[in-house]
Specification:
- With about 100 residues, this protein is mainly alpha-helical.
- It has one domain.
- It has a two-stranded antiparallel ribbon with strand order 1-2.
Length: about 100
């Protein structure tokens, strides 16, 4: 097997599990957007993971929040921008390379 830089991903939840998560979060929050960012419609139609699935979040209701589509779009863009910035950071120099003989 060849080495790969890709890390092994967790399996995604089934569509039935995702639907239960969405329904549970929306009902718990009363279909009211929890983010209320500028441009918010206040009517939640989507369920958002507070801690994203790719960052180790779960489908537990405690990790969910009801959001409107405009707030969800803004939050997703902010998360993507932060991920790109982290990816572009230059690694620190190896400490052994800084020593001169």
């Amino acid at each position: 097997m060849a080495w790969s830089s890709h890390r092994r991903r967790r399996p995604r939840p089934s569509s039935a599990q995702a639907q239960r998560f969405r329904t549970g979060v929306l009902q718990r929050d009363g279909y009211v957007c929890q983010l209320q960012l500028p441009g918010c419609t206040h009517r939640a139609t989507e369920a958002d993971h507070v801690l994203a699935w790719e960052q180790g979040g779960t489908n537990a209701l405690a990790n969910g929040q009801a959001v409107c589509s405009s707030c969800h779009k803004i939050k997703t863009q902010q998360e993507a921008q932060a991920a790109r910035a982290a990816w572009k950071r230059k690694p620190a120099r190896h400490p052994g390379l800084d020593q001169r003989a």
